[in-house]
Design brief:
Layout (H helix, E strand, L loop, with lengths): L24 H35 L7 H22 L4 H21 L9 H28 L15 H22 L1 E2 L2 H21 L2 H5 L9 H21 L7 H7 L3 H13 L36 H19 L15 H28 L6 H20 L3 E4 L3 E6 L13 H33 L4 E4 L4 E5 L2 H8 L4 E7 L24 H6 L1 H8 L7 E6 L20 E2 L14 H10 L11 E6 L8 H12 L8 H4 L8 E4 L15 H10 L2 E5 L21 E6 L22 E4 L3 E5 L3 E5 L2 H18 L7 H11 L18 H4 L6 H9 L1
Parallel strand pairs: 1-2, 7-9, 7-10, 8-9, 10-11, 11-12, 12-13
Antiparallel strand pairs: 3-5, 3-6, 4-5, 14-15
């Protein structure tokens, strides 16, 4: 018999492949040290960058645009240098591959991390850029891999080893990804439609990138010997893959969203290693030329040694990697809002708590996957497509059931706040005072505001109805809140009647209530220290004035209407309570902040400055966050209260407007406000003779830190805080403010005792605590002299003239903020002197 060539004529004969030898001990040590260095550096860098963001946010300082680009570039340099050394120096193919993979992933981290310079409010644009960058990086890696593979002689298909069907491995990758996604479906909530779609596209692109980084050529370097040793592949390869996924996770998501991925994604490297070990395992040999059972069209049997160097291999693992990593990344990207992963919400069981819970559950799932896949696949039999398919089906049903059942179904995206160019002309409103005069002013201002809004919004509202875009019109600021994303925003911005379009932030729902804040301090036995410092107790006892006849409006987290210190002061009726967040029909408060501030204004039993005054309430904060629309909802309700479910335009009752409004809140850019968005609202209330008292903010001791509306507005009485020694607290925000001297006055705001939901009491600190006390002092003044009601200039002047000195404090002696007046205002309010002056 003639002996012919083993391969078809004209086809190159592959060169014998040398089996990779074990790496030198020094190379292994270098790789281990580099891996530990990389893990520590990435974790510290990402956590430190997020904490720096939170400190800036809590301090009221501007966001540092270069913070994250600098962090990721620093990480790339410190990780890339040792990784490059591994890629070039050792003679071991496995160590070189480790270095090259870590270097490539570090460069990908640099490209992805630079995107965090985008403002978090533009989340859709960030997700689109993330998807494009990840896809481009994957294309570059695939091109480089094909180029490297083209330089190596290819083994003909007839001589390729027969592998387990890719479908079984792929299905197990899908199952692993669904398992990682499950905690987020349970504990998280989706955003808007476009946001969710873009998150899915970005997750898919990141899965493709992971598949390009951890392809068959990568895994083949960790297989030594004949037959292959699964322990080396699963353990060593899993460790290297875990570090790779850690680097990739560090670049995924806006600030905060990447933190849970640092926990959940790296353990998946071991699961991928086990899947690759299963993909390499040869299928049972059948008759010559026959396909294996359950695997139509399978390749003929062949030797099962390691894949040739540089050859991409069968590609069995790449789809599994894409599915597992893509679905694992989808959870934090789609089911959390990065702006809600903040320390501002960390004091209760809010978003940070549930994100941590989902991350912990994801870590447990990833660990179970690593162990289960490692044992059953790394050292067991090849995966069965039938079992894998059933597993995927069960997990799909579980994900759907959790989403509809115990999850938070639906879309919960942001809305748009559209400010119109024309605002109502309130010039010439008669400056009448006293009860009747003030009520006439409110009615005239309300009429002008409604007329202007109905005339100028008609075309816009008609087009919104035609497009079936849900919207809410406002008149106190001529504005409309609208459902929609970037496309709707661009369309609205081009309309001639629109001045600007802002994002009206919405918090996503929680899997369980955040919990009601309750106080543990004992009830007071007499007037509290802050009440005595202001001299309010002397006003009650010596002047016989307690605020009777005056109504104070509280816009905050709510008010516990059943609290003993507040129940008797509620004005009652069907127009004294409004809750645009949750639609409650009776005064209630989950957060506690509003109950505390209302108690300091009108609470009885020694905590309130004006215990004889009545109160009306509105909820403009939900879980300590707000947005321009809901802040405006409450201010508009206070100008013309209306019954529950009523139309503010037609059912408003200007004659029922409270006399004084206490506002212990501010609307920063994080919540969607710009500096002037609420300006028309406070101007209208000022024209109506309604006193607006607002907190200066808690972002001191920095100068120019009174910057969140409404505190900087000239027509608002802005209040700073002092301690028991009459020193301005370091947290109290300061001026100067363009066009106005701020704060106007200061009041006790350090360790103030007041009411909390459920009948308890607590000590809190902040300019939030000082503000309602000044509102209470105004209530005492107007109660003592009803003719002063609505006379805002005279009331402010009396407060300034009768204030007593307060002690200024400084961040540094060089930071005087342009003079003590921008720190202390006119001084500490003196209720006794102010009431006597009001009577005179």
């Amino acid at each position: 018999m003639e002996v012919g060539p083993p391969f078809p004529a004209g086809q190159p004969v592959p060169r014998p492949l040398a089996t990779p030898g074990p790496p030198s001990p020094w190379a292994v040590v270098a790789a281990a040290v580099t891996g530990c260095w990389t893990v520590g550096l990435v974790v510290v860098g990402q956590l430190g960058g997020w904490l720096a963001d939170q400190v800036l946010l809590a301090s009221g300082l501007d966001r540092v645009v270069w913070l994250w680009p600098a962090t990721v570039l620093f990480t790339v340099l410190l990780v890339g240098a040792p990784a490059l050394t591994l890629a070039l120096l050792p003679r071991s193919a496995a160590v070189r591959t480790t270095g090259r993979t870590w270097l490539a992933t570090a460069l990908a981290l640099g490209a992805l991390g630079l995107l965090r310079a985008m403002p978090p409010v533009h989340h859709e644009a960030y997700l689109a850029a993330l998807a494009a960058t990840a896809a481009l990086a994957a294309l570059v890696l695939r091109a480089l891999a094909r180029r490297a593979a083209g330089a190596t002689p290819r083994v003909p298909a007839s001589a390729a080893p027969r592998r387990a069907p890719a479908s079984g491995v792929t299905l197990l990758g899908v199952a692993g990804g669904l398992a990682l996604l499950l905690p987020w479906v349970w504990l998280g909530a989706l955003g808007g439609l476009l946001e969710t779609v873009l998150a899915g596209v970005a997750a898919a692109a990141l899965g493709v990138l992971a598949g390009a980084l951890l392809d068959d050529a990568f895994w083949s370097r960790f297989t030594v010997g004949e037959p292959p040793r699964p322990a080396r592949l699963v353990l060593v390869g899993g460790l290297v893959a875990g570090v790779t996924l850690l680097l990739l996770a560090a670049g995924v998501g806006q600030s905060g969203a990447q933190l849970p991925l640092l926990l959940t994604l790296p353990p998946a490297g071991f699961a991928l290693a086990a899947l690759h070990a299963a993909a390499r395992r040869p299928a049972p040999a059948g008759p010559p030329g026959a396909a294996s059972v359950g695997s139509p069209g399978a390749a003929p049997a062949g030797p099962s040694g390691p894949l040739p160097a540089g050859r991409p291999g069968t590609g069995a693992l790449r789809p599994a990697t894409r599915w597992l990593v893509g679905l694992g990344v989808l959870g934090p990207l789609a089911f959390t809002d990065p702006e809600e992963i903040t320390l501002l919400l960390a004091s209760t069981r809010d978003v940070p708590f549930w994100v941590a819970a989902a991350a912990g559950a994801g870590l447990a799932v990833a660990a179970v996957l690593a162990v289960t896949y490692g044992v059953l696949l790394g050292w067991g039999r090849r995966p069965s497509r039938r079992v894998a398919g059933v597993t995927v089906g069960v997990l799909l049903v579980a994900v759907g059931g959790v989403a509809v059942g115990v999850g938070q179904p639906g879309l919960h995206g942001e809305r748009l706040f559209v400010v119109l160019r024309e605002q109502a002309d309130l010039a010439g409103v008669p400056a009448t005072t006293g009860r009747a005069g003030r009520d006439a002013r409110v009615a005239e201002v309300h009429r002008r505001l409604v007329t202007t809004a109905e005339r100028t919004q008609a075309d816009l509202r008609r087009d919104l109805r035609r497009l079936r875009l849900d919207h809410t019109p406002y008149y106190l600021v001529n504005a409309v809140e609208v459902d929609g994303g970037p496309a709707v925003r661009a369309w609205l911005s081009r309309r001639p009647e629109v001045a600007r379009v802002l994002v009206s932030q919405r918090v996503r729902p929680l899997p369980a209530p955040a919990g009601r804040s309750r106080g543990t301090a004992p009830a007071p036995t007499g007037p509290e220290w802050n009440v005595r410092m202001l001299g309010a107790d002397r006003v009650w006892s010596q002047l016989g004035v307690d605020g009777s006849g005056i109504v104070v409006g509280s816009s905050d987290s709510g008010v516990d209407g059943g609290h003993p210190a507040l129940a008797g002061g509620f004005r009652g009726g069907d127009d004294s309570w409004h809750d645009p967040w949750n639609g409650t029909r009776a005064p209630t408060d989950q957060g506690g902040h509003g109950t505390h501030t209302a108690g300091s204004a009108v609470g009885r039993g020694g905590i309130g400055v004006a215990p004889g005054a009545r109160w009306a309430g509105c909820v403009n904060l939900d879980r300590n966050l707000g947005n321009p629309a809901y802040y405006l909802d409450c201010l508009q309700f206070m100008l013309a209260p209306f019954p529950a479910g009523g139309d503010p335009f037609t059912d408003g009752r200007p004659a029922r407007a409270p006399d004084i409004l206490t506002n212990s809140w501010g609307c920063p850019a994080l919540e969607g406000c710009d500096p002037g968005v609420l300006g028309p609202a406070t101007a209208a209330l000022d024209a109506a003779g309604v006193m607006v008292v607002a907190a200066a903010g808690n972002t001191g001791p920095y100068c120019r830190s009174i910057d969140d509306p409404p505190a900087p507005y000239a027509d608002v009485l802005t209040v700073g805080a002092v301690d028991r020694q009459r020193k301005v607290t370091l947290f109290s925000s300061r001026g100067p403010v363009p066009g106005a001297a701020k704060p106007d006055v200061v009041a006790p705001g350090d360790e103030v005792l007041s009411a909390m939901p459920g009948g308890g009491y607590a000590v809190l600190s902040g300019t939030s605590m000082a503000t309602p006390q000044v509102a209470g002092v105004v209530a005492l003044m107007w109660s003592a002299n009803p003719a002063l009601v609505g006379d805002l200039p005279r009331t402010r002047q009396i407060l300034r003239d009768t204030a007593t000195p307060a002690v200024a404090t400084y961040a540094a002696r060089t930071q005087t903020c342009g003079g003590d007046r921008n720190i202390t205002g006119a001084g500490l309010v003196d209720a006794y002197a102010a009431v006597r002056a009001a009577r005179g």
